[in-house]
């Protein structure tokens, strides 16, 4: 996707770039002059890029990262501040919240490759992904309270699910900014990498996943979805057994078992 190209549906592609290779789709935010702030146009392009990656049978993992020194700085302030009051703000917030919900509920693993600052909405985006790999230079923070608002894309709710309540509340109520190393200590990110190795290490992890069959990947993502939906353990186990039965005995499964037995 190029900065000045147009798709057949008339949407101009200028805020993101999509790279596809070896089963991995990397979606790059490319508004570095505004620290990759998410505009309404970017939200639309992100939604379409995510939908395309999810429907592409060749893609097994989706990575999100930023161009330049920032991951995502949040919403486009100039654009979003034009909304005044609930009636105008709700559809604007809801548009981006919908994108983050698509990231969180994707039946393919999503990885935030946090290459730099991820403040406010940037942290909300990162926490919507299934995994977070951060550069040593990255800074995270749910800083919205300092602007006399709250998280508005679902990040607060997700943070309260992922971290102990007291730690999550502390981050939300103080707006504290934390380094990647601090975020790793309390589980906000999964791995911290040297800036020169961030892409390599993230792609290595994604490649291990992408080497596996899409049907099995999606099956495990289903299990996560069932857990998040609050289904009882007994029902989740029953669905897991049924799902495995659907996959059992496929040609590749039989070949690999026969190869094992031949040893």
Name a few traits of the molecule.
about 260 residues; 2-enoyl-CoA Hydratase, Chain A, domain 1; 2 domains; 4-stranded mixed sheet; disordered N terminus; 6-stranded mixed sheet; alpha/beta; globular
Question: Would you write up a description of this structure?
Answer:
The protein has 263 residues and is α/β, with parallel strands linked by helices. It has two domains: 5-210, 2-enoyl-CoA Hydratase, Chain A, domain 1 (Alpha-Beta Complex), CATH 3.90.226; 214-262, no CATH class. The protein has helices at residues 40-55, 77-80, 85-104, 121-128, 155-162, 165-174, 180-185, 198-210, 214-228, 233-247, 251-262, and strands spanning 5-6, 12-13, 16-21, 24-29, 61-66, 70-72, 110-114, 117-119, 131-135, 139-141, 177-179, 191-193. A six-stranded mixed beta sheet has the order 3-4-5-7-9-12, with helices on both faces. A four-stranded mixed beta sheet has the order 6-8-10-11. A hairpin with a 5-residue loop joins strand 1 (5-6) and strand 2. Helix 1 (40-55) runs parallel beside helix 3 and helix 4 (121-128) packs across helix 5 (155-162). The radius of gyration is 20 Å and the shape is globular. It starts with a strand and ends with a helix. The model is unreliable at 1-8 (pLDDT under 50).
How many structural domains are formed by the residues? 2
User: Can you tell me the CATH superfamily of the largest domain?
Assistant: 2-enoyl-CoA Hydratase, Chain A, domain 1
| Structural class category | alpha/beta
CATH level-3 fold name of the largest domain = 2-enoyl-CoA Hydratase, Chain A, domain 1
- What percent of residues adopt helix (DSSP H or I)? 40-55%
Alpha plus pi helix count? 11
Pattern of helices and strands: EEEEHEEHHEEHEEHHEHEHHHH
Enumerate the strands of the largest sheet in spatial order, edge to edge or round the barrel. Answer: 3-4-5-7-9-12
Total strands: 12
C-alpha Rg (nearest Å): 20 Å
- CATH A-level architecture of the largest domain: Alpha-Beta Complex
Distance between the termini: 47 Å
